[in-house]
Amino acid sequence: MRNLLSVKNLKKVYKYKNKTIEAVRGISFEVNQGEIIAFLGPNGAGKTTTIKSICGLVLPTSGEINVCGYSPKKEPHKVAKKLGVILEGNRNILWKLDVVENIEYFAMRRGIGKKEAKKIAYELTEKLNLKDKIGIPTERLSRGMQQKVALGASLAHKPQLLLLDEPTLGLDYEASQFIVEYIKKLKYENKGILITTHQLDIAEKVADRILIIDKGKIIIDKNLDILKKEFQKKKLMISFEHNDLDLVKNKLSMYKNKYVLNADKKEIEIYFNDSIEIYEIIEILKPLKISKIHTHTPNLEEIFISIRGR
């Protein structure tokens, strides 16, 4: 698997009113071919500074960035040809141009000839389901349509690495799902994708790996499936008769692990660590009837909240 992005010990320090602000504090990570990474973190964590440093829009205080073998600082034009970008809050397209003209324009800006650029523009317009929008200035399109055009423009020069900053922000469900499915397809074109989003359900749908940054430092860099297993909680579901409520409380009063008692549903959720503990729980709760046992796999939002809580 070919490495497309390498960030090593990246630091960015800002000076503001005699104060030193460490926006990014020595982070390192990589993005490989055919890999989608969700870059997550609260506002002010350092995500935007990192993304702009990779693009060459922000000059790091120290550290190394390598994009497909090139340095954004020393070889910005070569990096631009390898990199496709959507920046949240920035104008990523030209309002007066339609979808074909936008894609053609950005392809030519990256050194592709006019004939080839036009061919690419029509191909992407069809793939993005925007053929019926040809001839309409993008300023007159919906937010979702404009984001599709921005995605087309970022792909115009056939980049190897994509940086997508909040690509589904503010979109309705249909437009958001289209963008999600399209991003997933790009993975199989051997592109490397770094996506930032506050929509954790979107990150969970597309990402192979999760990067979480907080206060300028990477605190998590793990495969999503491995991360879920680490935070997986084994949960024993036990039903009981309403009259047994006081008995249940008494029996569990000395139990060392966490449990949740739902009197309305006549149900207990008890968290356990291993199979041996199941027998201990059953012994404690005799003669209550056990209805089912199952394992609860947390979603990314639950994991994120748990990590932030630490």
Automatic annotation (TrEMBL):
The protein's superkingdom reads Bacteria
UniProt keywords, alphabetically = ATP-binding, Nucleotide-binding, Transport
| A GO term for molecular function | ATP binding
Entry-linked PROSITE patterns: ABC_TRANSPORTER_2
Q: InterPro entries this protein is in?
A: AAA+_ATPase (IPR003593), ABC_transporter-like_ATP-bd (IPR003439), ABC_transporter_ATP-binding (IPR050763), P-loop_NTPase (IPR027417)
Q: Where is the ABC transporter domain?
A: 5-240
The residues the entry assigns to the signal sequence are none
Output the SMART domains linked to this UniProt entry.
Answer: AAA
Q: Which PANTHER family match?
A: ABC TRANSPORTER ATP-BINDING PROTEIN (PTHR42711), ABC TRANSPORTER ATP-BINDING PROTEIN NATA (PTHR42711:SF5)
Which family is this sequence assigned to? Belongs to the ABC transporter superfamily.
User: What is the name attached to this protein's record?
Assistant: ABC transporter ATP-binding protein
Species source reads Marinitoga aeolica
The organism that produces this protein has a lineage beginning with: Bacteria, Thermotogati, Thermotogota, Thermotogae, Petrotogales
